[in-house]
Amino acid sequence: MEKITVKIDGMMCGMCESHMNDTFRQNFKVKKVSSSHAKGETVAIVDEDIPDEKLKEAVEKTGYTFISAEREPYEKKGFFARFK
């Protein structure tokens, strides 16, 4: 799994965050997605990478500005993870 952090300009409130979360769910196969207008980013957990071009297209279709995307491996953390 992979964690993709997308920097986005133009989100101003909680409704903007909700709109961006819905956009990611409708356009990509995401395991989890959360947005923060304060940080100006959306973080998505995915099984397969999403190319920057597709991220940019989805973000800019909604009226926001795509700035960048960073990727890093994601390991699920849970209560039992520490007992492995």
CATH class type: Alpha Beta
Distance between the termini: 19 Å
How many helical stretches? Answer: 2
Major sheet summary line: 4 strands, antiparallel
Number of strands: 4
Which CATH architecture would you pick? 2-Layer Sandwich
Give average pLDDT, whole number: 93
Q: What would you call the structural class?
A: alpha+beta
Outline the low-pLDDT stretches.
Answer: none
- Helix proportion: 25-40%
Assign the CATH topology. Alpha-Beta Plaits
How many domain units?
A: 1
Brief digest:
The protein is of the alpha+beta class and 84 residues long.
Labels describing this entry:
84 residues; alpha+beta; Alpha-Beta Plaits; four-stranded antiparallel sheet; 2 helices; HMA_dom; HMA_dom_sf
Overview of the structural elements:
The protein has two helices and four strands; from the N terminus they run βαββαβ. It has 84 residues and is α+β, with helices and mostly antiparallel strands. It has a single domain, classed as Alpha-Beta Plaits, CATH 3.30.70. A four-stranded antiparallel β-sheet has the order 2-3-1-4. The longest helix has 14 residues, at 14-27. The radius of gyration is 13 Å and the shape is globular. The model has no long low-confidence stretch (mean pLDDT 93).
